[in-house]
Design a protein that fits this description.
This protein is of the alpha/beta class. The chain folds into two domains: about 375 residues, Glycogen Phosphorylase B (Rossmann fold, 3-Layer(aba) Sandwich), CATH 3.40.50.2000; about 325 residues, Glycogen Phosphorylase B (Rossmann fold), CATH 3.40.50.2000. The strands form six sheets. A nine-stranded mixed beta sheet has the order 7-10-11-4-1-12-13-17-18, with helices on both faces. The protein has a six-stranded parallel beta sheet with strand order 21-20-19-22-23-24, sandwiched between helices. The radius of gyration is 27 Å and the shape is globular. The mean pLDDT is about 95. The protein binds ligand 26V. The site of ligand 26V has 21 residues, from helix 6. InterPro entries: Glycg_phsphrylas, Glyco_trans_35, Pyridoxal_P_attach_site.
């Protein structure tokens, strides 16, 4: 598409779709007009792909996920269609800067963190490799809350991404299913029938997902909850206006808001409703599509692969059995085997508090038929394994991990270590019974978003050096390995990083009034705030460093800027304390005239995908410092390594694999490994001992205790201090000394810029394996038995 054609298309949409003209149009109007013009280019490949999949009558993959953390869509589409230059030229011919227009788009924040972002990377890779697939989820009216800081404390407010027209979706009033809740179960002529007490309508909204070079496009289908009847006219006519609107309000509540990753009591019922709502709608849709092409439901596993992204859609097991058995009359045993043939389950966490359990009381009242099927499935499993010492129900609760495991033919972890720990801990008993079921699929990230778009300077350099093929064949990055020894390439690589850092520095100055020196090391920790991720270990090290610099202000210190980003679940009090501490420490340290040329701390509020795209390319050091055994994989760690940030990290999740691939000499390792963690925890008073043994740690904790960061409010952070001195379940104190040691090694290494750049280049060169294209191909061959159809789309 030429610049002129694109320009004409934009002007036409501005006029005919938005009803405005160039003199009056706002940036948002222009952005939407551009989005429509780009969307038009997606529709043909999208139709071609859908038709190719229909013609092939092959297997389709269905990725069921409560979360899709997509971020902005326009840039993705422009990049994947190869229209960056035309779009930029068209926009400037209209007097606009493309970057300004692209950044006007609100993030689609339909996810909490790693799990949701992984789903978004997978969608893009599924389209890139040409695998016929659908993402299924919920069209939340409000995504993840907005975070702001008031006096250093996190304050949440509702996010409102749909306030502006959403240019990427197509509403499908014709694709709608009624979803029931509650009611009674009765037997009728040998068949079991469930008569729900209430129901809502799930209506589909489709977003095309275009792969690299526009060769293939899939569909993300998100369900929105609508009432079965709009309003109660009788009540309205009686003047009861609120009452009349009640059915609509109740129904719409289901897709109103994304659950923040927490474990509050209230809202449990609504969460279970959300889970069943989107799972049931998706399965109905999948069966409808199957039956439009085939007639023998026993063939379902040959044509349908359903991936459960964590246990959130685990009710899919009993629901599919119900549809096959109760609705379509398949014998129960066969229905269970058929459902299992279609389903597979990904586990994303071993944290006991994050493993879903639903009380049988709640489940029985919302989903009575499903509860009785779970009992049947459990009994069938127990009968097949008489020596089995466990069941999927315990203390009046249904364990969703066990249910998902028993109803899946494959169960996967998301990094090598995590998968080993799944076998050894949470699923040890089930693993013994089904040793072939668990397998590893190490996570990956899409290089189109996380290198090509986010880091155009590095991308240009890579393409100049080895051609463009790396973009969808990321292991080609190995070809730049020899260039680590090429002084000219190292200089170019350093210049690209430097320019990214300058850009970030001006952003921080403009947006936050913070001034940082691009010459300093940019040390970044961005992720949800959680004790196991140990942001408090990072801030303790900052305090100790600040004290040491203060003792010797004329020392030869390596200047650092520590940047934090991340949200705490609204109900997670301790995580919010950590945020407050970081902000309070930042305030004191940044205003210290003696130390601030060596150490600054910044914590921009409302960390999201778009901010990650700014921060990662400008980072020198990637903080991956979780307690070993707790971070299932991490995916930020991969994005940093690809963009040439060196990792300081523990042997946890995919850090282990990153270190193996980039080389131990290009990775700053510290801390206990997972086995040592378990052993240390068993030692009485481990925290007190660690503090006693390290005067730096003791002094940093004393400063917090004495109110150095809470002037006039001594004891403000006692919850943190006493946790770290006593229970310290996540072993912050015990790992501090080694973390400090590794950080000082980082300081020394950063001073030798040549050596540092060599290490950074090797990180980029050797991280190509972490492309989500590799992960998706592996799921296709090892779990889904699905084929890519790129050639069939006529490309
Ligand atoms: C739990 C809950 C609990 C109730 C309310 C809502 C909610 C939402 C999400 C979760 C589970 C989060 C699990 C998760 O995000 N795991 C992360 O998955 C990433 C992708 O596999 C992985 O890289 C991270 O290490 C892992 O923490």
């Amino acid at each position: 598409m030429t610049t002129t054609e694109l320009r004409e298309a934009i002007l036409a949409h501005l006029k005919y779709a938005l009803g405005t003209d160039p003199d009056r149009a706002s940036v948002t109007d222009w952005r939407i007009a551009l989005s429509y013009a780009i969307r038009d280019r997606i529709v043909d490949p999208w139709f071609a792909s859908t038709q190719a999949a229909e013609a092939a009558k092959g297997k389709r993959v269905y990725y069921l996920s409560m979360e899709f953390l997509i971020g902005r869509l326009l840039e993705d589409a422009v990049v994947n269609l190869g229209l960056m230059e035309s779009a930029s030229a068209a926009m400037s011919s209209l007097g606009l800067d493309l970057d300004t227009v692209l950044s006007d788009e609100p993030d689609a924040a339909l996810g909490n963190g790693g799990l949701g972002r992984l789903a978004a990377c997978f969608l893009e890779s599924l389209a890139t490799v040409g695998c016929p697939a659908y993402g299924y989820g919920i069209r939340y009216e409000h995504g993840l809350f907005r975070q702001s800081f008031v006096d250093g404390r996190q304050v949440e407010s509702p996010e409102d991404w749909l306030r502006q027209p959403h240019a990427w979706e197509f509403e499908r009033p014709g694709a709608a299913f009624e979803i029931g809740f509650g009611g009674r179960v009765a037997s009728n002529a040998g068949r079991t029938e469930w008569t729900p007490a209430e129901s809502v309508v799930a209506e589909a909204y489709d977003t095309p997902v275009i792969g690299w070079k526009g060769r293939w496009a899939n569909t993300l289908r998100l369900w929105s909850a609508k009432p079965t009847t709009f309003f109660d006219l009788d009540r309205f006519n009686r003047g009861d206006y609120y009452g009349a609107a009640e059915p609509e309000a109740l129904a719409r509540t289901i897709s109103r808001v994304l659950y923040p990753d927490d474990t509050t009591e209230e809202g449990k019922r609504l969460r279970l409703k959300q889970e069943y709502f989107f799972t049931a709608a998706s399965l109905n849709d999948i069966l409808r599509r199957f039956l439009s092409e085939h007639d023998d439901l026993r063939q379902l596993p040959r044509k349908v692969a359903i991936q459960l992204n964590d246990t959130h859609p685990a009710i899919a097991g009993p629901e599919l059995v119900r549809l096959l058995h109760d609705v379509h009359g398949m014998p129960l045993d066969e229905a269970i085997v058929t459902a299992r043939g279609c389903l597979s389950y990904t586990n994303h966490t071993l944290l006991p508090e994050a493993l879903e359990r639903w009380s049988e009381g709640l489940m029985g009242s919302l989903l009575p038929r499903h509860l009785s099927l779970i009992e049947r499935i459990d009994a069938a499993h127990a009968a097949a394994h008489p020596d089995r010492g466990i069941t999927m129900r315990e203390n009046g609760e249904v364990k969703m991990g066990e249910l998902a495991f028993c109803m899946a033919h494959k169960v996967n972890g998301v990094s090598a270590l995590h998968t080993e720990l799944m076998k050894r801990t949470v699923f040890s008993e089930l693993h013994r019974l089904h040793p072939e079921r668990i397998l590893n699929q190490t996570n990956g990230v899409t290089p189109r978003r996380w290198v090509l778009s986010a880091n155009p300077r590095l991308s240009g350099l890579l393409t100049d050096a080895i051609g463009e093929e790396w973009v969808d064949d990321l292991e080609r990055l190995h070809e730049i390995e020899p260039l680590a020894e090429d002084a000219g390439f190292r200089e170019d690589y350093a210049a690209a990083k430097r320019a990214n850092k300058e850009e970030l520095a001006s952003y921080l100055r403009a947006e936050r009034g913070v001034s940082v020196d691009p010459e300093a090391m940019f040390d970044v920790q961005i992720k949800r705030i959680h004790e196991y991720k140990r942001q408090h270990l990072n801030i303790l090290e900052a305090i100790a460093l600040w004290q040491e610099i203060g003792d010797n202000p004329n020392g030869d210190w390596t200047p650092r800027v520590k940047i934090f980003g991340g949200k705490a679940a609204p109900g997670y009090v301790f995580a919010k304390e950590i945020i407050h501490l970081i902000n309070s420490v930042a305030q004191v340290i940044n205003s210290d005239p003696v130390t601030s040329k060596f150490l600054k701390i910044d914590y921009p509020a409302n960390y999201n995908v778009s901010l990650a795209e700014r921060l990662i390319p400008a980072s020198d050091l990637s903080e991956q410092i979780s307690t070993a055994g707790k971070e299932a994989s991490g995916t930020g760690n991969m994005k940093f390594a690809l963009n040439g940030a060196l990792t300081i990290g523990t042997l946890d999740g995919a850090n282990v694999e990153i270190r193996e691939l980039v080389g131990a000499e290009n990775f700053f390792l510290f801390g206990m490994d997972a086995d040592e963690v378990m052993a240390r925890r068993a030692i009485d008073g481990h925290a007190a001992r660690a503090i006693e043994a390290d005067p730096r740690l003791a002094r940093a904790l004393d400063a917090i205790r004495d109110g150095a960061f809470s002037p006039g409010e001594r004891g403000r952070f006692d919850a943190i201090v006493s946790n770290l001195s006593q229970a310290d379940y996540f072993l912050v104190s015990s790992d501090f000394t080694d973390y400090w040691r590794a950080q000082r090694e980082v300081d020394v290494a950063y001073r030798d810029r040549t050596a540092w750049m060599r290490m950074a280049i090797l990180n980029t060169a050797r991280s190509g394996w972490f492309s989500s294209d590799r992960t998706i191909r592996s799921y296709m061959s090892q779990i889904w038995n699905a084929q890519g159809l790129l050639a069939d789309a006529g490309t």
